[in-house]
## 1
Amino acid sequence: MAANDINSNISSGSAGKQPDADTLRTGQETPPADSLTGSVDPKEQAGSRDENGTPDITELGNPGKPQGEAGRQMLERMNDSHYHVTGWALDKMDLAEACSILDIGCGSGLTLSRMAEAAPEAHLTGVDYSPVSVRLTEETNRPYINSGRMDVKEASVSRMPFDDGSFDRIITVESFYFWPEPVEDLREVRRVLREGGRFFLVMDIYENGNLSEHARGNIEKYDLFVPTIGEFHRLFEEAGFRETSIHTIFDKDWICVEGIK
């Protein structure tokens, strides 16, 4: 477990249990202050405009489904803004043991690239329903795709083109805010996960009662779904995961929800 990480491990029958004080760990890790809301850059305010009154690149690019040149620029910028929270979650995945890995909402493809380096024996797959994201992911990972180690599909999380039990590790970073049917979509994730496989849902914000005015402005502006810890437990239980673990950072709004099939 990472230092300063709070980890609540429960069976799926104990939905809603909060991490207790005994699970707190302290150490040297001090996560960089790069928190954002969804695909929204933390340096931007909700409703911001440039000096000419033009909507910012996030608004133009559509964080829910990146589109056009603005969407491409937004995804490339997210490589920096999501880098540390993604790395924090990747450290929990035991990637060296993985054989088949899926990234849902693969965006720019950088997370896939990082996992390919960490899991040299694994086959990796990315899925995204944005054609802009699919193209950028393919460009980012062309050597892995050409070698047969990786493939990328254009599809929605609600209906993924994979057989049951196809993957032993699945991750989604900063995409759950936009999933159309959270419980049903989590069931679809569970369907393509192997028995005993692990799913990691990563967000750099969750409802903890202490969100900033900036964060709440972006939640409203982009209509983001931001559950509490208890709600995450309930969602994963309803989706059929047999065990759910919640990882958080003591002084950050980051959350990594781990579900085991």
## 2
Amino acid sequence: MSVITLQVRNNRLWWLVLIRGIGAILFGILAMFWPGVTLSLLFMIFGAYAVLDGIVAFITGLIFRGTLWGWVLVQGLVSVALGLLVFRYPDNAAALFVIFLAAWALVSGAVQAYAAFRLKSAGEANWVWVLVSGVLSLLFGIYFVINPLTLAKFLLVITGLFAVLLGVVLVAGALRLRTLLKDPRFEILEGSVL
């Protein structure tokens, strides 16, 4: 299959990218601006989005054989599996996510603080910055161990912002693919594609 033929086929499926983009934007808006929604409901919404995104990615992988389709299939399967788990156990998913991030901050902060003292004993001049970074990570982790709901709300806003930005990029890409499909250079191949 030639590169031009593959490009035309990809351009014809612009709507798959558009669906993923719109889904990401909607999820992001819900995550950031739906006041009063419980964390478990939001994780259920995320689970539904992950399943939908995974199904679309899986179908896209099947259609785009000859490219990186194997990785897209894997992405789709992982997304569906994660979405089903989160949808089935939203409270557990939220709690594990918050605990994981707080633990990560504590461990990385402790490692950085230890490294700073090792750097100081070795005579390195930049040990202070490593120590400050470690202390900030430790404080972040301690704060969120004490106040996990604050971390959860913060993560919802950041996740929502990420999803909206991702959705905008996907929608823009889909619209660009649709524009390329209307390019007269591809009209010659109309009968031989798909």
## 3
Amino acid sequence: MKINHTLLFALLLLSATSVFANNYTITFPNFAYIPDSLNVNVGDVITWTGSFSFHPLESTSIPAGAVAFSSSTGTTYAYTITTPGTYRYHCAIHDFKGVLIASDPSAIKEAVSSARLTVYPNPANDQVSIGMDENMLGSNLSITDLTGREVLHSTVQVSNPQIDIRNLSPGVYFVTVENEKGRMTRKLVKE
């Protein structure tokens, strides 16, 4: 059976975003959400655990474009964050409250948006060059696989480092350069 490599690559790339999502659990054993405030990212999954028949969950305000949530039965409810912004919720009977503050990890901070990050050649076999501005010197450089496992880590010492990737298995990787000003990520295909 012939496999359509383009379709397989697209499916792997689409699934990569959910690989990096975090899962958070919020409980409400009495009359309070624990924790009652969380900083989360788009793609993260929030699971409330408790008795919704005694403490019905209800969103009270959500960002534009997000879907409202509520549950009045069962003992677990999961919600995936889809939009950056503030999500407020409460127990519809006892009015104890909680808040989720969601960020978009794919958004590049303004301080870094004008910076350059290129990975070439791409696809590559043995070595890649990482092109970047000199203001990125001292940044952390990492390469991760699709599962989020870091396969290489170093500190940027020169503005266009050469990285040996001979020991990497063929596949899709992510090259990330990060410093106090922000983070930039580019895809790398190892043949």
## 4
Amino acid sequence: MPTLTRQKIVNLKHLLDGHTAGNSVRIEIRRNTCSAGLDIRTGERNKQPMGTLAEKWRNFLTQEKNENIVLIAVIRDRALGGSLELALSADILIAESNAKLAFPEVNLGLMPGLGGTQILTRRVGPYKAAELLMLGKEFTAEEARDMGLVNYVFDEADLEAEVEKLVKLLDSKPPESIKRIKKAIRIAQNVSLEEGFLKEGELFNELLLTDEAQKRIRNFLEKRDEKRRLRAKDKARTKHKRTEIA
């Protein structure tokens, strides 16, 4: 079964580095690409198995420029080990209903090395993370959704259309809002609640001054005022008719 190699990680990094259109980028984890996880033979060829790769990947994920991108991971068939870690790096995670997931590294005397322990614990809490990482058992897409690891689960027949709808919806949102929302979420995981409130306020104020926000606010207020005028007109017309009947 194909595995997630150093080169595939590098290729993905190049894809994201070169992204310019829209808010979202989709990566797909499937059996015939890299669902079996990291190529452990990389460790046989290098004295530091995945250390350098893991460090580069973590650094890449935390780069500020990646706050401009909504990364959508779609899991088909299976996502094991490093491939599941890769999927967990996404902002939105979607799985096919028959997909199987697992962190089997413990069965090889290893542990996740691409940030899996840290991201998983933040997603599902320390107790569930301990269960998944220490037992190394497979779990279903439905179970992943129920524990908050996956956002959506779709049948194979519906998946493509549902993902496309989600991508279009995301791409319709203002990029500056997406960027600051991602930044605020990242900040929330690393600071106190009080500091998080302050940072959120700063980001909100930055957005409030943008041309895009001002335009959308004006449009919203104009539409709201028009609806109010129409309701008032309908109310007056109804009242007039009642008066005529009386």
